[in-house]
Write a structure and sequence with these properties.
Helix content is about 25%, strand content about 25%. It is an alpha+beta fold and about 170 residues long. The chain has one domain: Peptide methionine sulfoxide reductase (Metal Binding Protein, Guanine Nucleotide Exchange Factor, Chain A), CATH 2.170.150.20.
Length: about 170
């Protein structure tokens, strides 16, 4: 084993240890039910429109496009961890993109809003619309989770994740 392999294995182990508490959260997701009026009071207007009215933010408008730090991307509504920063990549689409989600973090359904079928994904806890998943992503999954930045919050690895919203 050379030095590169050792460092790579140590990095993977570090990520696995960091995400271990998240796995417990995301595998046992309990639905959070709130009315649209309750969500409207809790969220900025643009986040509410995307999460609970299936809106889309303009491409290139999210500061999360340029986020490069290690950390976790959580649902902006209920704070469920959805993505690890090591799964984020630059897709060139103008929206934050990921090639994999945390286990049990999202649900999926078919969407025909633009006539052609797409796969929408939403937070498994609050059912907030996050974006669409496509099969043109990088290896190893080949998937591209194209996410609205206003539907996410970024928590750097140096900070504690917030408690799930109740």
């Amino acid at each position: 084993m050379n030095r590169r392999q050792i460092l790579s294995n140590l990095a993977r182990l570090s990520v696995a240890i960091t995400l271990l508490p998240l796995a417990k959260i995301s595998l046992a997701v309990t639905a959070l039910k709130k009315s649209k009026a309750e969500w409207r009071k809790l969220l900025p207007q643009q986040s509410y429109a995307v999460l609970f009215e299936d809106g889309t933010e303009p491409p290139g408008s999210s500061p999360l496009n340029n986020e490069k730090r290690a950390g976790t991307y959580i649902c902006a509504a209920c704070f469920l961890p959805l993505f690890s920063s090591d799964k984020k990549y630059e897709s060139g689409t103008g929206w934050p993109s990921f090639f994999d989600v945390l286990p049990g973090a999202v649900g999926k359904k078919r969407d025909f809003k633009i006539i052609l079928p797409r796969t929408e994904y939403h937070c498994a806890r609050c059912d907030g619309h996050q974006g669409h998943v496509f099969d043109d992503g990088p290896k190893p999954t080949g998937l591209r989770y194209c996410n609205n930045g206003v539907a996410l919050q970024f928590v750097p690895a140096t900070e504690k994740l917030p408690e799930l919203r109740t």
